[in-house]
Structures
1.
Amino acid sequence: MGNSKANSNILIKNKRATFDYELLETFTAGIVLTGTEIKSLRAGKASLVDTYCVVERGEVWVKNMYIAEYFYGTYNNHSERRERKLLLNRKEIRRLETSVRNSGFTIVPTRLFINEKGLAKVAVAIARGKREYDKRESIRARDDKREMDRAFKH
């Protein structure tokens, strides 16, 4: 069957996060999953669109994360958008909690991946929402970079 841990090239990105938010500080957290969830995740059937994190009673929870039901899951299957607990140390949780108390800051998951040990991890970032003109600036910078790349290729 081979070593399944070596095949840990699962990486699900939240592309909206970098567009809608200015990412200030990033943390990598473990995530508490059920058996059918990790199997779906290993199959790459997950999405971070419209996900966010909250700190409740000293614990960090990711909400609205989509992990598809496992095809062979039968009655053991999980609900696709259930809240999932993130595993961070106390210092990191405290840092996230104090940042979110400031208005305009939120915690957004940016990447969901399986590390080299075969464990599911989520990269979360303390983020500040971009205003409309910031988004236009991001689009302009991206387009300029694309133009530059085109110019150098020819």
Note: The longest strand covers residues 21-31.
2.
Amino acid sequence: MKHEDKPLIIAGKQYASRLLVGSGKYRDLEQTREATEAAGAEIITVAIRRVNIGQDPNEPSLLDVVPPSRYTILPNTAGCYTAKDAVYTLQLARELLGGHKLVKLEVLGDEKTLFPNMPETIAAAETLVRDGFDVMVYCSDDPIQARILAQIGCVAVMPLASLIGSGMGILNPWNLSLIIEQATVPVLVDAGVGTASDAAIAMELGCDGVLMNSAIALARDPVRMARAMRLAVEAGREAFLAGRMARRFAASPSSPMAGRVA
């Protein structure tokens, strides 16, 4: 099946890159810059509670190497376990970034799995949307929950492929396919990607993009892995648009026997 190529548009802005990357876990800010450039990413997610973007004027700022003039900074609520904390964190980010509206919401359920707490996530999403934020939201791979978040007004849903930082890849492609099939907003895989083939599979399923951090930052060579992830996302998107061949239960020769010269 061949699919129509539609641009990635989030909150009214079009992006050429479908690979979104995080900014944590790197050796230093210089490596962060190099990997971000190698990934070709345009949207960079920033954990407000862990990364300095101006909160501490006496420390180096991430914005020195990933400037808002070049990248879309996506503040996130990593480390928040209640809707109240998540909302407060993003309100702080809006002040630090001069009224910035595009944010990534995640409300975690526990420290062991980092699985999303969906009731708290939905409550926070409702508050943030009413407050004028453009909310991209980390969620479980539950099609019903994803639909509810889109109906609330979130500008993108971001189901996990597997646990945050696990590198286990896509464990339930069927649920992701159901989410994509019903989607009215962009669907981006968030969490669990471990290597380039995981990113390619996500894109082949029809995801609009992939967000990752650990898979790049914790690789032996983060800059080279960032480049591999960029190529994988591009290849997966091309394969999705082209439409894979039908699966068969018998061989089909590449060189047909009919019409051959005896």
Note: Residues 200 and 236 are 4 Å apart (CA to CA).
3.
Amino acid sequence: MIRVRFAPSPTGALHIGGARTALFNWLYARNQGGKFILRIEDTDQQRSTLEANKAIFHGLEWLGLDWDEGPNVDGDYGPYYQTQRLEIHQKHAQQLLEEGKAYYCFCSPEELDKKRKAAADRKEAPRYDGTCRKLSQEEIKKKLESGIPKVIRFILPPEGETIVGDIVRGKVVFKNDLLDDFVILKSDGFPTYNFACVLDDHLMEISHVIRGDDHLSNTPRQILLYKAFGWNLPKFAHIPMILGKDKARLSKRHGATSVIDYSAMGYLPEAVLNYIAKLGWGCGDQEVFSREELIQKFTLKSITKSSAVFDVDKLNWLNGKYIRQILPERLFTLCEPLLIEAYGNHDVEYLKKVVSAFHDRLVLIPDIVSLSTYFFQDVTEYDPGGVEKYFKTDKAKKVLETLKEKLAGLEPFTRESIEPVFKELAKELDVKLGMIIHPCRLALTGTLDSPPMYDVVELLGKEKVGLRLEKALSSLL
């Protein structure tokens, strides 16, 4: 059984990098008919919060990444919060102590800081020097009885190599002499990350550890722990980090990094899901994938080694494509509250027609507000370039006057009857149709870009069209 996990620390909202890790795990589980487990690594008591925990759930649910085991879902391998597994962690730390594979360390934070500074002065990597490994049993007993704060350190082999066989990166070799006896259980009884994740991954029977390559340096320590317990290793796949366009690691300075931020900014979850799937993974030249296609085509071997670059322009392009695919009813549900907030209450059918007019023009959902202003407010100014090009021609006044006259008497005032008026006027004045449409668009919207002209005229209605054409004519005087 393929069993993978996403194990976030609840110290903040679900960011894009974490969402990509969750997605790759979820896709692999679904592709292989396996299980996707959510485990909350909340042992950082200072930074873990209930709000962050809820934000992680919210982000995953918004993206549609459901978990087969984890919080709020039954499973045989729980608990799925690490703080509820402390007895398990402490028991296994004691086992390593009894087997001589770990030892108590009584060095104070001040002493450790001095050791780090001394190593820096010698231009060496800050490594624990193994002071407490040399303590006799009698010394250890005395220190324990005196209640001196202690941690438990894992004994690393002083020489040799630890090899990580990584599905994405291939063979990665680490020299053991560059590692040190790291802490596995802190003085407060809580496990460190490297220790807890090894125990929990093994006991939850995780088959593949798929995570960001910032964890690659942790892997040799974890492999040595697996070997110390005599456990089989899972398969590792370290996925490339995500960079901004400046090639620096993606952060808040590149814009929103929280998944829910993107929701608030007007992105569709399927567009964000599609986009982050392409960050470090690909399938030929295909850019747009349905959820089913992603599941069908995803493989770990298709993950790239090189860092992925987050490009907002590309995400925007993709979001626009997805908006054009969604049902009108869903688009209206997303746009209606924004329009009401901006322009007050209006007839629902009118709002639906406005939203429909922009269905193929929106890039972000909130764009509906700025694009549709002229459907709710009078035109107060005209595009300067448009004025020069379309209002200052020798036929502009004649075009607008004739349109005003013909449209004023038109019945019914529908697109089907409006279109012939424009075409007949173009023939009558012996000009191209564009020389009728463009001045009218400028007069009715104040812009050079709008939905199809006949739809705009119909939607504004006879009264507004007449008033705006009159206003435009007065500006020509």
Note: Residues 16-32 form the longest helix (17 residues).
4.
Amino acid sequence: MESKPLTPSRLQSLDAYRGFVMLLMMAEVLRFHRIHEALPDNGFWSFLAYNQDHVDWAGCSLHDLIQPSFSFLVGVALPYSLASRQQSGQSTGKQWGHALRRSLILILLGIFLRSMGREQTNFTFEDTLTQIGLGYPFLFALGFAKPTGQWIAFAVLVIGYWLMFILYPLPGPGFSYEAVGVPPDWAHHYTGLMAHFNKNSNLAWAFDTCFLNLFPRAKPFLFNGGGYATLSFIPTLATMLLGLQAGRWLKSGSESTVLVRRFLLAALIGIVLGILVHLVGLCPVVKRIWTPAWVLFSGGCCFALLALFYFVIDVKKVHRWAYFLIVIGTNSIAAYCIAHLIEHFVMGSFYTHFGASPFQIFGPVYEPLLAGAATLLVYWLILRWMYRRKLFIRI
């Protein structure tokens, strides 16, 4: 028997997926790496620690999927947003005004959060919010285009970004990798075409040594320690375009079984192509500079996760378990800010009023885990309070 198309005003699967992504970010307070350091031979904690951190360069952990998923879901939501604003009678000019205002707020909020604890404004544009903010006006414009035009734009972004890196000259023999924070014998150095994507010696790094020094800084910008770059907003836009296509499919009213097959096929194509491009030596799968191979691979992973959440929650109607995630996902901006702003206050308050003893009931090794779990619970209770009172932060 064929399933009927779902036409709810808000798909719970999207909120649950978004909540899952934000939970991964907020759960950094669990400090799995601290337990792994204390128990280095324990495979379980080694696995959890690996997936709670970014890989050094090429490859992917679960933590690496936070930013592409968040970006992907921005694209998924756009067709619904455009339809809602058009139905309410908003003019194109007013819609553009909202899009540009949203872009500016995201950029400024990202800079603000990255400046916490610093002596002056930290002008940086590589974090999740600023990357989405930089690309959002272009995503909004493409939201009015036909699917063919959107796919053409996607191809231009991916291939064009690859060509930009390939055409940028490799560093000469006298280049000092140590001066840009990279050991000369670093295991992740590539040769051939892949060398154009090496850490802090590529086009994006060169751009930032010029661009970021246009802003007031305590000292000149020489490199980003993690290799992250401003120009990543270009391929991040490609990731958002994949989400835009997924949103179009969801909104089309197609049979749910057809949608799940489309998502799974897109997931398979993206993951296989991304790995293949890496293996043949055209481009590595690197999240930190959002390589074209990463766009394909991570985009495939996003489609797979969307298929999973959509099938379980909106098709099979198994959704009671997802309440925990939906509370987070419906207030993702609040969750993002909470995780960045009040961690030290909440955790410090626990130690001030209760001391360390409650967190050492399983021994000092697990103290960071229990203290982090208590902090994470406070995060969720705040979001639940907002959810029950319908207090949602929208940009």
Note: The first helix runs from residue 12 to 26.
